[in-house]
Amino acid sequence: MTAETSSMSSEKPGGYPLNLLVGSPDPKNLCMKCDLLLKKPVQARCGHRFCSACLLQLVRDGPTRCSKCVEENSFEEDISILQPDGFFPDRAAKREIEGLPAKCINTGCSWSGVVRNYEEHIIICPKLLVVCEECMKQMPRDQLVQHVKQCSKKRSTCRFAFLGCTEKVEGNIVEHEQKSFVNHLGLVLDVLHKTSGVTPVPPGTLEARISFIEQKLVVVEQMVSLRTVTEPHLGASCGKESHLSQKRTTGVTDKESSTAGEHLGALRQRLELAEQSIHRFEDVVTVLNREVQSVAVQRIGGDQVQHGNIGTIDFLNSKIRTFEQEVGVNGVALADLRKKVEAMEMATFDGIFIWKITEVSRKRSDAISGRQIAHYSPAFYTSRYGFRLCLRIYLNGDGAGRGTHISLFFVIMKGEHDALIRWPFRQKVTLMLMDQNNREHVIDAFRPDQTSSSFQRPVNELNVASGCPLFCSLATLDASRNSYVRDDTLFIKCIVDTSDL
Fold it and tell me: What is the pTM of this model?
């Protein structure tokens, strides 16, 4: 019967409205997509925060570039690619935002509290804008019940519907009852005729029925007058002349007088039946009026209960959507945790790491087409609390090696124990493409340039990669005499000199 509208909807992407906060919002608490206050914030690998629903919408059709990284000119391959399993819930930001002072955004509402309680309030807010489905007029929720009673477009059932009136009245029901008085009275008379046993008047318009009854009343009046005139003479013991004279005066015979008396008695009986029917009709009308008033009161109460039930249902639906979103975010967090566990299982802690790359043909094809040009290895370490490192490979080359070589790079990652490590990184690094026949490995080595930002303590998740853009030519990789790729798999080995650590 009513459709609620609001400035926010939990089932659609988008954060909390900015005017919800008592003060000005902190830019760090704004979603990178919708620019609203973060709702259930998640953080991507590039460090940018999004509403969980906004980010899920962004990656709905697959991995996509982070527009904020592009805008800030800090785009990095893979790190700045938003993926369905590449983000995690930012619980610290969620606690901070949900604890901020808030006020209701609906005009006239005095509610205030904190952000976490806003969604529960907005479901029952008396000043939330709602729409009347009859006239489509928008108004605060607490004015809806009174408006529905007086709505100019409201279509009501006529009170005489139980007697047969089929009109659906838009607007004032009293005006309809006044215009249809004759028809309603006809319906009532038909019901009375059926229930009282009185012979009905001929069918036709109500005016014709009234005319018929008036004619009958004239006849009755004439008969009554005749009876009044004749009765004194009928019992008198007058002479024949006097009797004949009286006959001549009245022009009525004894037989005619008797017939008139019988007719008058019958009419009196019918009149008594009509009076009884009228009394019954008055009783019926009284009962019906009471029933109509009772139904009207029940309907108003039912409308109020229904509006309350609608609010409860909307609140429960909101809770269900919240739980569904939390399940989705928890699923993403679980997938991220599973990846971390797998990475820890593959990690080494002695500076020596062998990276097994499978499905080489498909990944080369993806690199050539541009779908995914680079791949990162799992992390490995120089010791349990040492440098955190990884490799990045371009199977169709990068920079000077694009289209002709495999490019292999060494990357220093941010670690949990960086504060305890001596910086910059200065260890010798050896990179190796392993010949699976153990005959002729492709080997390259370098010592770090200690002035390069690539080897300083990381500020972001990953430092800028450094390595060999011309590591191995594709011709050498594909040569039939070599066994670098076997069963669509190749192996990369990295050795970090840890002798002086």
Answer: 0.39
